[in-house]
Amino acid sequence: MGIRITGYVLCLLVITGCTRKEKDSKINHGRIEYRITYDTDSTHRKLVDLLPHRMKLVFNQDSAINIMEGFMGMYKLNSVTHFRTRKCSTLLKIPKYSFLFMGKRGEPICCFDPMDNMIVERTDETKEILGFTCRKANISFPDSDYTYSVYYTNEISVRNLNSTNPYKKIEGVLMEFELNMYYFRLHFKADKFFPEYKNDIRFTIPANYKELTRDQMCQLLGRYLE
After folding, report:
1. CA distances to 113, 117, 119, 122 from 65, in Å
2. Hey, where are the domains in the chain?
3. Backbone torsions φ then ψ of 20, nearest 5 degrees
4. pLDDT at 16
């Protein structure tokens, strides 16, 4: 009888230990896909159908790449961030041409409003997105009445993922958030997750490309959004 009890206890400990290990282990690579919706003024509303409505975030422990396509595939805007150096490079591809912006350490991602005066108020509220427990933070700005909420998860273990985007004050993977680009407010909400265990971050620079400054890149993209 004692032997049977001992065996049962050992099995229970093994099962409990495996469960705890599985629960405590965190994901550090994969692909998240986001649905994008837009707010804008009536003047530019006609452009919304031509803008990107999906974004892919592919990441591992070393780097991440954001992939967006718009104007029915006529342009592609890809940005890669290297976490160790905290540098972000942006590649804009339009028919027959490719343009590259190489950011400096800590310089914000190109073509989006850096929102430097953002105020982040963390809360204890949570909700589940794609199986991840996500914490809620309220976002506000000193000179504006506009406020909104973002959701991020700490169940994906990647450091400095937000080092080159406006949410550098948040240590976590954004699952629901907003960005401003020219006349548009973009709402991102994660709706797919793929735990890819072998996902090299490939940022292929075309042979014939032109390197631009940040201002030149922003002006060029802005012309397509007029």
Report:
1. 18, 25, 26, 26
2. 30-224
3. -65, -40
4. 42
Residue linked to tokens 């093994």: 14
* Mean pLDDT rounded to a whole number for the chain: 84
pLDDT at residue 20, as a whole number? 32
List helix spans (H) across 29-148.
none
Round to whole Å and give the CA distance between 201 and 56.
12
Instruction: Please state the φ and ψ torsions of residue 210, each to the nearest 5 degrees.
Output: -120, 130
Whether the model clears a pTM of 0.90, i.e. scores above it, the answer is no
Point out the least confidently predicted range of 92-106, 113-127, 128-142, 147-161: 92-106
Rg (CA), the chain: 21
**Nearest C-alpha neighbor of 79 from the set 51, 52, 54, 101:** 101
30-224 maps to which CATH number?
Answer: 2.50.20
69 touches 52 (CB < 8 A): yes
